[in-house]
Amino acid sequence: MKLLDGKLVADQIKSEIARDVKENFLDKGFDAPHIAAVLVGEDPASMTYVSAKEKACHEVGFVSSVYRYPSNITREKLLEVVDFLNADDEIHGFIVQLPLPGHIDEQKIIERIDPLKDVDGFHPVNIGKMVLNLPCFLPATPLGIITLLDRCGIETAGKHVVVLGRSHIVGTPVSILLSRKADPGNATVTICHSFSKDIPAIAARADILIVAMGKLGFVTPEMVKQDAVVIDVGVHRVPSTETKSGFRLKGDVDFDRVSRKCSYITPVPGGVGPMTIVSLLQNTLKAAKKEVI
């Protein structure tokens, strides 16, 4: 078993981005790429993600702004914030951190974002272009997954990929990306969801198993083919007396047991998470260079 070290790969990509920013922006007298995040409420996971994004931005020389609002913000006010960021020429890209409070329709907010600033890659225009294999901003976590597979030399062409979970953030877009005529891609993809029958048997046939179910320890050894590649997208806080924080992070995969059976596996933390953040940086760099038009 070998670890697919997302932190190591992300650090390599951040070094490449930092060099790009210096050579193509700062040394030429241009403003550095600027990304903004809109954070509504005080969801711990969202706050942690935005904080990690800020840290990564500073490491590569980006400008990073965070707009914080209380959880009782109205939809109308949040739409005004989106309109303001759309119109601000100094901001190359921005995200509205999800999830949003229940009284706000997330899709309405996403659809209001300028597709050319949608560095999260969730706008219907970017999703549509992704399906057609046209230049666009890809959703950050799926982009991180295919980049990790590519950088670690994991062949996808002709492989059977099983994706557990069909969310529009991870499962559905990564299934599209890996089935496209592209590299990475050209895989035969099966996507499983809550209505799928006999998920364990389907998962056990996968050469590459991508797990985004949101269920702690869902995947057990009998669900994994010998020498399969396993990508664990899940993140769960589990109480622990062995850490200062009082908790540790675990995934959707029973790592200790499954890791003995597969050829490659992502750890939690340190696997997909760092790749998601660095993918956001990659999209922002593309936005600053106006590579998606």
Q: How would you portray this structure in words?
A:
The chain is α/β, with parallel strands linked by helices. The chain is 39% helix and 16% strand. It folds into two domains: 87 residues, Leucine Dehydrogenase, chain A, domain 1 (Rossmann fold); 134 residues, Rossmann fold (3-Layer(aba) Sandwich), CATH 3.40.50. Strand 2, helix 2 and strand 3 form a beta-alpha-beta unit. Helix 6 packs across helix 10. The longest helix has 21 residues. The N and C termini lie far apart (42 Å). The relative contact order is 0.16.
Which structural traits does this protein have?
293 residues, alpha/beta, Rossmann fold, 2 domains, 6-stranded parallel β-sheet, 3-stranded parallel β-sheet, 11 strands, 39% helix, 16% strand, globular
What is this entry, summarized?
Helices cover 39% and strands 16% of the residues. With 293 residues, it is of the alpha/beta class. The protein folds into 2 domains: 28-114, 3-Layer(aba) Sandwich (Rossmann fold), CATH 3.40.50; 140-273, 3-Layer(aba) Sandwich (Rossmann fold), CATH 3.40.50.
* CATH homologous group name of the largest domain: NAD(P)-binding Rossmann-like Domain
Query: How many β-strand runs?
Result: 11
Number of domains in the coordinates?
A: 2
Strand order of the largest sheet: 1-11-8-7-5-6
Shape: globular
CATH architecture of the largest domain: 3-Layer(aba) Sandwich
Which sheet architecture does the biggest sheet show? 6 strands, parallel
Straight-line N-to-C gap: 42 Å
Helix count, DSSP H or I runs of 4 or more residues = 10
Tell me the fraction of residues in β-strands, as a range: 15-25%
SSE order, as H and E? EHEHEHEHHHEHEHEEEEHEH
In quaternary terms, these chains amount to single chain
CATH hierarchy class name of the largest domain: Alpha Beta
